[in-house]
Amino acid sequence: MAYENRLAKETSPYLLQHKDNPVDWYPWGGEAFAKAKEADKPILLSVGYSACHWCHVMEHESFENPEIARLMNEWFVNIKVDREERPDVDQIYMQAVQAMTGHGGWPMTVFLTPDGVPFYGGTYFPPEDRHAIPGFPRVLKAIADIYRNRRSEALEAGQQLVEQLRQGERIRASGDLLTETILHWAGLALGSEFDEQHGGLGHAPKFPQPMTQDFVLRYWRRTGNSRASEMLRVTLTSMARGGIYDQLGGGFHRYSVDRVWLVPHFEKMLYDNSQLARLYLDAWLATGETEYRRITEETLDYVLREMTHPEGGFYSTQDADSEGEEGKFFLWTREEIRATLGETDEARVACRYWGLDDGPNFEGRNILFVPREASQVAEELGLSPATLSDLLAKARLRLFEVRERRIKPGRDEKILAGWNGMMLRALAEAARSLGRADYEQAAVRNAEFLLNAMQREGRLLRSWKDGEAKLLGYLEDYAMLADGLIALYGATLDRQWLDEARRLTEEMLRLFWDDGVEGFFDTGRDHEALVARLRNLFDNAVPSGGSVAADVLLRLALLTGDDRFQKRAVDAIRTVAPLIGRYASGFGRWLSALDFHLGPSLEVALVWPATSQAGRQLFLNELFRRYLPNLVVAGGAEGGETEGIPLLEGKRALEGKATAYLCERYACQAPTTDPAAFAAQLDARSPPP
After folding, report:
1. CATH number assigned to the domain covering 602-685
2. Which residues are CB-neighbours of 118 under 8 A, at least 6 positions away?
3. What is the pLDDT of residues 502-550, one digit of tens each?
4. Pairing of strands 77-82, 43-48
5. Topology of domain 180-190+267-317+412-597, per CATH?
């Protein structure tokens, strides 16, 4: 019988990947810490995630190596953590590693005392000395020796680190006024980092940073700044045509290793694709660029096709590797294209359009990308634009069908509440703006799944897999799910979703808000005690729980009239106010929340006769074909339940017709039953830049 360690009882796909290692792995929990105290051994904490390429490399090189495993088992108590399940553990010890080494990443390797205090750490370690990086066995021996013979030094260093980690608990809201000046400073800061030629910020490696680009779009809307428009268009077009985007199947890979968006790390993350789908949707609404609409739909179609559980939840990640090779599923050669399409015009167009005529671009094969404009390809091949488009569509479909027969990358099928909340919002907003009933249906099923399967006695849980929900939800889970439910209410005008969003928000304030710091903690009052209770203020690949919470509170304040929500949101923003203008790329969602707070906001109340919804959709079509980032909408049948929704109180359906009320801070313009008049009101209040 094959050896199995304690991870065999876990549900996380990442932990299960390590269940057959000869390492005596423990999951994070009391059993491991009790064992470390009993045996007087330090803890080796290894943190990663299932789609992480270098995590797989270190497992194969070290954790599957019997001799290295013997050293680990002899000198340490070994704990393996899935960072996506336990962002609290990951955040605490990543900050410690960054403080110790000046950088971080995954796999993360941290050495702790039996009380959980970190005293040494790093990221990937090779099995032997390599490129100035010490081999893992050498590291293990050195740390074991320090703990045995120089323990006081380790303990002192660890306590200093913990004190640094706890500094975040002391950050309080600034007394400075929140003004447009902060937004202008942020716009200037981002402009100074912009890559003029290829878009995005900085050089290689490049991450999409959708929250930052969302703020750039908002800033362009607010100011009409042509520089912001250029930054947005160059970035979104370059990413859409690069190898970071899956040209056949849709959806974005995690990041590009180069400056030009060509060579990605091939994993696909739910959180990236939810945010990028929303960004491209908003960019289409703001600019009318049809390419951005196509990218939105292809990305969401990819999620519904590849990343959706039959019960309605969305999976977390798709791996970078297939058949043990990074990116293999996505790569082509010119010969494979021609063998698939034959000696046809489709093959000729495909090879030219997707860059195969230019030679291999990745380890002897090709990542499909778009190196030249379609108009240039059409001219070079003597084709009309319509003919080129038709041939490309046929080639794409055939190549996709053939690619589907390949062995697919692995998939992490755990369902995370917060990440699902982000995709819920993307689908709800796309459904209403694109008129896609299938997106609305998927969003409703997702909301029902999250509320039914991922709560226990009203407490939201973090993770679900194979019928089991577990781990207390974090701030980000509450905030992101509430965010998605507010968007679903806006798309359906079904009150149950607004009521659920408000209930979750009330719980969020109870569990995570702290009057002493005038802000949110990431873990709830009922969470296990760790060496520090952290407040992640930065928007990284995933927005911070605090920034999403502030945005949710601002929207709910307008929808419900509850001034508490407004006050808490403003206090939370003031906590980061001294930072967000100067370090804009780390505070994209915070900047968007500030933009919403500063206004102007648009509030729309839509009321229709109790006996008929006729005409309702015409108003919604006018509303949702526009880019209106600071919009909240409420709606209901005349005479229906309006308590708790002041936008609807006292509103009537005039002349027995659907009637729209356009308001700002509850001061409403004259109601109208004419969609064309409503459109004129919208254009007057919120003209495009």
Report:
1. 3.40.30
2. 93, 96, 97, 100, 110, 111, 112, 158, 161, 162, 531
3. 999 999 999 999 998 889 999 999 999 999 998 889 999 999 999 999 9
4. parallel
5. Glycosyltransferase (1.50.10)
